[in-house]
Specification:
- There is one protein chain.
- This protein is of the alpha+beta class.
- Strands 1, 2, 3, 4, 5, 6, 7, 8, 9 and 10 form a 10-stranded mixed beta sheet that branches.
- The radius of gyration is 24 Å and the shape is globular.
- The N terminus is likely disordered.
């Protein structure tokens, strides 16, 4: 149980049940609708049961599929899993049964689930305080590597060939075979980075004329995002790869705002015009922002012509002690003194959340994103998508108003928090009556926005 006093008198296991019920209500129904291509008549475990087992592998940060067989093998865990999945099973399936399902499940069907969880949070208005200038939700596009191999893994591998120096002083060519995924994550200044959509960047065959790439994946993913959130006020964030005319044009077409990292070499004509106009304005569009030991100087120019559209450029020179950094963005949001600092700090710079709170956490925070849970290309994608669902649930737990302030104080770290949750699920069974009592406790999810 949690310590007494000011803390909620509920165990972590019960808080997890409540979080699933409030933030991921309907997940069992979504799982139930996914295609099951296993051999009819030989299916013992239903799809939701196995997918939840996979999600919990990542929620509890086991680090490998094999550990399912050792950590989930108690009668108490089986009872708790029955409560979550609303099934009646006598034993926990082994990891091979889960893998058999994911070998056959089309990843594009499982890929639709994370966006439904985000839609549920938006409908509950749980993310209102993360809106830029009180208006736009921040959606970041970025790609990350998932797996790499010294030899060809499959026909869809991306390839990169480098010239290296051998131990005997000669040069040779070395080819790396790797996989990428493009993510769209909804981020907030408080630190949330919730997966919305994923697109796996891969070649159509072993010898393509042109390799698949991140920008091509963006053009595939953007229409899907628009179809899912047709009327949602969206501001797209992206690094300098996205700071180009075609991306800006597509955002305009979808009525999206954007704040994209500006690199002069991507738009040299725009860069020259910006420098000329900035001198002509003679520091009219200038803001000095100071906060404690941080000093930021902003300059901006609005209405720069580029391919029959208008672009605005925001520049920031930041100094903290002896360190100095320079940033620049292009945007279609009008820049003025009242919003310049906000657009930079609560807008453009939030792009880093997808790397820090997103990819880095998933790679180094116990989820083992780069671990090959399977070598089968289809199953690999499905494990990745289950990881995104698990990270969603953990973030809702970790940023809950009742838990975030006490994680380090009472559990030492997020790792300690996860270990305690695992032990409660393994050692303490929940009866159906107890489960219903927990769900009807009047518990509300309020996300910490500090």
């Amino acid at each position: 149980m949690l310590p007494h006093g000011r803390l909620p008198m509920r165990s972590l296991k019960e808080r997890f049940f409540q979080t699933v019920h409030r933030a991921a209500r309907g997940l069992n129904a979504l799982f139930q609708k996914l295609p099951d291509r296993r051999q009819a008549g030989k299916v013992k475990y239903p799809v939701p049961d196995l997918l939840w087992m996979g999600v919990l592998m990542f929620v509890l940060k086991l680090g490998s599929r094999r550990r399912i067989n050792y950590k989930f093998n108690t009668a108490e865990f089986r009872e708790n899993l029955n409560r979550i999945t609303d099934t009646v099973q006598e034993r926990v399936a082994n990891s091979g049964t889960l893998n058999d399902l994911l070998l056959q499940m089309p990843p594009e069907s499982l890929a639709t689930v994370p966006s439904q969880l985000v839609r549920h949070l938006l409908r509950q208005r749980k993310l209102e305080k993360g809106r830029l200038l009180g208006r736009w939700y921040l959606f970041v596009f970025d790609a990350t590597g998932t797996y790499s191999f010294p030899e060809r893994h499959c026909d869809h591998c991306l390839t990169q060939t480098d010239t290296i120096q051998t131990p005997d002083g000669k040069t040779a060519e070395k080819t790396t075979y790797y996989h990428l995924v493009l993510e769209v994550k909804l981020v907030t200044p408080s630190g949330l980075a919730l997966s919305v959509l994923s697109d796996f960047i891969e070649n159509p065959g072993p010898n393509p004329d042109v390799q698949d790439c991140e920008l091509t994946a963006f053009y595939r993913l953007a229409p899907k995002l628009k179809a899912l959130f047709q009327n949602l006020p969206i501001c797209v964030l992206g690094d300098s790869l996205y700071g180009c005319g075609p991306v800006a044009e597509l955002c305009q077409k979808y009525n999206w705002k954007y704040i994209l990292t500006f690199k002069e070499s991507r738009l040299p004509c725009v860069a020259r015009e910006y420098q000329t106009l900035r001198k002509l304005l003679n520091n009219k569009n200038h803001l000095l922002h100071k906060e404690d030991k941080l000093q930021q100087e902003f300059w901006w120019v609005n209405d720069i012509d580029h391919d029959s559209r208008k672009l605005n450029i925001l520049e920031c020179q930041e100094t903290r002690g002896k360190e100095s950094h320079h940033f620049a963005w292009i945007t279609n949001i009008w820049i003025a003194k009242p919003n310049a600092a906000t657009l930079a700090n609560e807008g453009g710079r939030q792009r880093w959340k997808i790397d820090n709170q997103g990819f880095n956490t998933q790679k180094n925070g116990g989820y083992a994103l780069e671990h090959a849970y399977s070598r089968d290309p289809q199953a690999m994608k499905n494990y990745y998508l289950l990881l995104q669902l698990a990270h969603f649930l953990n973030q809702i737990m970790e940023y809950a108003h009742w838990l975030k302030p006490i994680i380090r104080k009472f559990y030492g770290s997020l790792r300690g928090f996860t270990e305690q949750l695992l032990e409660e699920l393994r050692r303490s069974a929940t009866t159906p009556n107890q489960y219903q009592a927990v769900l009807h406790d009047g518990f509300q999810i309020r996300l910490d926005t500090s």
